[in-house]
Amino acid sequence: MSPTRLHTLIRETLENSPHLTQRGLAERMGVNPAAVNRMLNGQRRIVADEIPIIEAYLGIRLDLQYLQEAPKPGTRRAPDGPAAGKPFEAPVPVYGYAAGNEDVGKKGTSGLNLANGDIVDWVARHPALNGIKDAFGIYVFSDSMEPRYFRGELVYVHPGRPPEVNKDCVIEMKNGDAYIKRLVKLGDTKIRVRQFNPPLETDVPLKDVQALYSVIGRG
Length: 219
Known about the structure:
The chain is an alpha+beta fold and 219 residues long. It has helices spanning 5-15, 22-29, 33-40, 51-58, and strands at residues 92-98, 121-123, 136-140, 154-158, 168-173, 178-186, 190-196, 199-205, 209-218. A hairpin with a 4-residue loop joins strand 5 (168-173) and strand 6 (178-186). The protein is elongated, with a radius of gyration of 18 Å.
């Protein structure tokens, strides 16, 4: 997706207004600053519900001729569907923020709850996810996986590929909370996972786990 006049107008308004910032716009929109950066470069679609918020922050009127159709709430696929002849190469949804907190399973420690199904962003599809239905991404919310992943970084998730030992995975708990960890051991009743900051290994009972997803790349 290349930048349109709409993206360019927003970017130029921010650049020419000392009191306006990308971070301020991100806070007003309720998205990660990285999402605004991609939007300004035409790599993230602008949806209808965001237009009044952007206009209010910038103090201008936007040309809606260049607005793309908004995704339907709760949808698991990009709003314009798979490209003709190239199944599922359309953008993928990003579901909130994933926190790599060491207290896996403790209520309230994760910034992401997959059970809510809240889409906070749409991003370009990772090449490894071409043809994969229900592929999605998440934003890293904590610093517990640094220097592997940093706060605010985009991580792509394969919904059907079984996680491998000594590789990164997303753990979805039965209460919906999600965490990014390194899988150390997969047992019959529990899994052992590792974080890097501070170094720590934790056992997670499988009875509390809803699903394990493979991390296949980053944005």
